[in-house]
Amino acid sequence: MTDTPAARTFLRLDFADGRKLGPGKIMLLEAVGTHGSILSAAKAIGMSYRRAWLLMDELDRMFEERVILTHPGRRGSGTDITPFGHRLIALYRAMERQSAKATEGAVAELTRSLAKAYQPRQDAAKASEAG
């Protein structure tokens, strides 16, 4: 193990009209595929059902093609990812891999350049969480 801190990159698309696509929506969409419902996906990733539903609704309206199909009802309810939804996940994950590979050298250089004795100020910690 090394004393050099690790770094991660995140990919977020900010479309010109204000729409955003990033790791949170993709992770939730993948969880919906794994668990078969928005409720189960929300529980699995520690998100409120309301927040998950709003994100899935936004994602489903964001593109010309549907991303999910919901089946409401007491029995047999659930959510399926559409073929386009699966393609969206694949495209996003491919862009993520390509981005990480393209920035690997620069990230490594920046990581090596980090101050070893750095300690965040308490009041600055909350500001850095915001971005």
From TrEMBL:
SUPFAM superfamilies: Winged helix' DNA-binding domain. Gene3D superfamilies: Winged helix-like DNA-binding domain superfamily/Winged helix DNA-binding domain. Transmembrane segments: none annotated. It comes from the Bacteria. PANTHER family: DNA-BINDING TRANSCRIPTIONAL DUAL REGULATOR MODE, TRANSCRIPTIONAL REGULATOR MODE. This is LysR family transcriptional regulator.
